[in-house]
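User: Hey, my collaborator sent me this sequence without any context and asked if I could get a structure. I don't really work with proteins. Can you help?
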Amino acid sequence: MVSDSIYFIQKNARWNFFINSSNAAFYTLAMSFASIITLLPLYIDKLGGTNFQIGLIPAIAFLGYQIPGLFTANYIESLSNKLAFVKKITPMERIPFYILTISTLYVDILPSQISICIVLFCLIMITFVSGAITPAWLAYIIKVIPPVKLGSYFSMGSGIGGLMGIGASLMVTYILKTKPFPENFKWIFFYASIAVTLSWLCTLLGREPPVASVHEKRSPWQYFSSLPEVLRQDRNFFFYILMRNFLCLGSMATTFFTVYGIRRLNMPDQYAGIFTICLLASQSFFFFLWGYIGDKFSHKLVICLGAFALTLSSFIAILFPTIVSLYFVYACMGMYYSSQGSSGLAIVNIWAPEGKYPTYISLTNGLTAISAFIAPLIGGKIADSIGFYPLFWLAGGLSLIGFILMMTLVKESRSKKIVET
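Assistant: No problem. I've predicted the 3D structure and written it out in structure-token form, which is a compact way to encode the shape of the chain:
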């Protein structure tokens, strides 16, 4: 049975690499049309939202992407076929894109706060469903993609998606410039809906052998009570999570760079699309570069460089308060996000015992959720009360601590395997 599954995986390796990279590419394209960094903040700003409500966008996104996996990982580890679980749940993640599109037709009729609530509800649906299926999706990926190609896989789909996203951002820039609000966002969200539909079709075409799980499902109490032991025994993994928390806190400024440019630097609205292009171009380039460096040399090096870039993004905004400097800010953000999306996922597989990758990923996400949730909310309060520059100073300092922790305390070599309980 094992030899049959190995043969199945090898036979379908190229297909799975292609179709799953395409899946990631189309999803990345969709999120270019519905960017939580540039476009959703602008949309809520146009609806009359406050900085606090704008800060809810990344807060909800981080919480949704990170928390639900803690509650699904135990069940997922017991499944012989992870992809089947993903296929059942994925439509719930994609439908909200269409709801978001339809809601733009009624912006002139509905009170602005209702429209804002619809946006936030759709974001909750998208991110929380995605967070619930992420352990299953990644467990499926590491089953069908060779470990030495993981960095390349994570980089390829997102990198190609970023390149397509550049074209999408050019469209967004044109739409924002030529069409009035809210018609411009109607078309932007519609194109996002098309892209996530194509991504979903790619999900249906994946191929996974039904290999028996090496873990039996335990009761929720048994499972959650075993999690602290993972951190106690794997100190390297513990320091990695600590480092991630500081980077999450250090990212509190990222949502506000576009709003800062519009409110303080008198930047025209269409620059939101231009900066999305800059962000995606940087992400795409560095995704390809990080995939090569991570697989060939060091995933730790990639993560360190990304953390340093996040630190630079805040300090550049402080020291050079011009629209031109924001291009470099978004380029640094692209370096950071691509390092996390490539090596941030691959390095965890180095440490995780066999079959425990869903638990390690859900812990990585879940134990940074509070920091990721409160960071933009605190950022919004700071921006409202004392201004953008104190926000950028605090974000830069926290990012710098994360960079130092990654450099000094986290080891990339395979840690001692945890005795499974």
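In plain terms: The two ends are 26 Å apart (CA to CA). You can pass these tokens on to your collaborator as they are.
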